[in-house]
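Course assignment 3, question 2. Fill in each field.
Student: A.L.
Task: Predict the tertiary structure for the chain below.
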Amino acid sequence: MSRSWAPLPVLAVAHLAGAAALAWIVRSSLDFGAPGRRLLLAYLLPYAVTYAVMASCALRTGREGRLWAREEWRLHWTALCLAPVLSAAAAPLFERTLGLDRLTAVSAGAAIGCGALATTATLVVSLRVMYAREVLKRAAPARVTATPPHLARLLAAHRTPHTARRTHRNGTRLSAGPGPDRPRRPSGPARPPRHRPRPERNPMADASDLPPHDDTEEDPRTARSPADPTGAAGDTAAAEPPAVAEPAPASAVREAPGNDAERAAAPPAGGGRPLTAGVAMLATAVAVVSVLVGGLLMAVGLTGHVFGAWRSPESLTPGLIGAGMLGTAPGLFAVSRARAWHEVRSLVLPLVVVLVGLFAVSLLNAGHLYIARGGSVVPVLFSLGWLCVLGVLCVFALVALAWQYFAPAQPSGPRTATLPGWSKPALAVLGSAWLGIGAGLLTRPGFWAAFVPWSTSRADAQALGVWALALGVGVLGALAEDDLTRTGAALIALPCTAVTVAVVLACRASAVHWHSGPALSLVCMVGGLLFAGASGRVLLTRTSPARP
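Answer field:
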């Protein structure tokens, strides 16, 4: 981690933007007389103290050479400079959507800006630590367990006579006994065994008074090289202990400029393109957000209340969106355990489709968001967070995906667990069904919304279309991989998503027109997801090699 996430140009731009926003806050607060001046003083005094502490700590750690600590302080320093920018942008928004007076809106914007940017800085620091761990983990090659030399010599000395093989002093290989494929001992007079005189030891002598062990007699089990059949050079090599390289400290690994671990990941054992740390971080971050936000949307939807970023006629659509997010979280958590890109792309590519699609749907229907139409505080803040988080994750996903395809690739190994023949037509039909209904809802929501067996708005239809499109891409991608070992993460997400969707449909069954054809089709498609995921996990367990 030698490169900074907050270089000096970024810090300078943050200072300029923060100064301009701070000037606007000062001018807006002074327009309200004594109440405004008191609120301004209560804002500027802790802000100035915090700024002084962060600036001094960042400069001090930089002078001391503690680059990792300096980077953390610089990230918090940059976020503090950008806090007035968020406050100045949020004040008019709160004034319009929540119906607040200007002084209250400015105060609320100032408080929310500082809190939100402080939390963001903490998250960025945590992501930097996670990124460093992922880079080091993926740069290190797979560990190979080897027997230490002293244990190998000890095991060789205690072998049974039927398996021990020895070497005569003239280089002839000997065995424990004669046999049809074993050479006999060379003829000649037997040599008497050597008896080395042992020095007398004083039981009360100190360990430093004992004579050193200088026995240079050759071990008959030591193998000689062809260039040195007599073993003359073996004494010198044995007398000199091999140099042991001291492990580099953790700070050198993290802060050394141009670290090789930061540039390239170790190639996977089965070939292919190595999984980059950015994709693993993206999957983990989206999984955490999916558990929190998806669990909230699903829980509120199960109670029959409408809650989301935009207005919906039924609570079923936000509940299904939350169910999809919650169901894919276990598969996303499993992405970080993979080493190769082909093992997770059947899940990561649908993830990118969902992020980009939901962000595009939110922008296309920006007029229907609570942040634009107004409402109570909780939906307005949720819609604001929904838009901001989706935008950040969307950019992160596109950058991580481009970075993944720039990674050097090796020839992929052979497929070890191909899909059974009977499953391929069913997967093709299932994936095409999800892909077709998703593309229709996304491109022509006015027409295809009539095929949804409950009431939906335009934004609801397009959001459901994004999820259906992603499911179709995932199923068809698994079919194109034609290898169960390459779809492990997707096989975790498919049945979990089917179960969560089925729970929402069962709990909100009164809102669904079950006597219609689209409802029957939906049941078959959800059941297909469950059967495909469960059967794939069973087949993968049966075909996987047994672990020692």
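Instructor remarks: The mean pLDDT is 79. Strands lie at 165-167, 173-175.
Grade: pending
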